[in-house]
Amino acid sequence: MAKKKIILYALILAFTFIAPFAFPNFGTQLATLWLMIIVALTWDMTGGQMGYNSLGNIFFYGTGMYVAALISIGRVYDIGDYTSAAGGGIYEFTDVQYFSGVFLGVLGAGVFCSISAVIIGYVTFGLRGPYFAIGTLGVAIAAGELVSNWDWVGGGQGISLPGYPGDPDTGKVFFYFLFAAVGVSVFVFVKWLYETRFGAAINAIRDDEEKAEAMGIHTLRYKLITWSMAAFFVGMAGGISAFQLLHFEPLETAYQTIFLGIFMVVCVLLGGKGTLWGPVIGAILFHLFKEVTWNYFLGWQWVALGALIVVTVVYFQDGVMGWLVHKRPEWFGIQVEDKIAGETE
Known about the structure:
The protein has about 350 residues and is mostly helical. The protein has helices at about 1-20, 25-45, 60-75, 80-85, 95-125, 130-150, 170-195, 195-205, 210-215, 220-245, 250-255, 260-270, 280-295, 300-315, 320-325, 335-345; strands at about 160, 245-250. Helix 12 crosses helix 13.
């Protein structure tokens, strides 16, 4: 079994490196796929593993975009002057300024969002169930409205960033590998985390928070740390998106609660909550579904999305992973009683 896992991981890594060169016309779509994997894995950290379903993780994505952009701009120009013209190619960046701005901006976005998660969590984790979901959604909506009326950061017009200093196709590969690096890091991190005592503690919170507290688990501390770690990776993903998109604005791009904010939840439900591979599989399936419907059924794409959600909730309540475990338990090392009985006879 261990050998098969090593081979599987090796094949996935090999495909990750080859994909942008084997499918050069789909560089942006492949990068977006990694973005979906990142936001799905991080949402499942709190929603699936800890039992706190958030509708406000998009706050960290949007905030990450702004923080990364402001760090990159602020190192070279006055932010207020730059955003007043929304960039638009008026200001030039050298190659060193651009790449250092990208890496420092993305890292700074992750750190800022991680700290923000702790601050927000002190208030929102006093809520449970649907109240927590609605509370976090309110934070994301409020942030979008606040930023859209804040002229210093571009207001409703948003921010324009300099383009990749080189061939556009090379730029697509560059951003693909940035997303892929974060995505692989998230997967490796959560795989390790869920096998530790920390993973067992957040699962205990999901199963019965009162009993977990009675057992001596400092539940608030675990909740804050978990959400902070998830926010770190989402913020980094948002920072990368800011440079990839070149121009973004608060409501439709950064704090897009009805798009990416909902998509990340659907990915996890489709793949299977509380599992390692569920968010990954769900993100892949959902991204393929979205690309097909958005390209070939334009005008009906939201109907198709609604149908997908209904089918998932009615027929795959445990997601694809849960359905596979039920139908093919031997694939996951689970022995079925009747098979065991037959072998003993």
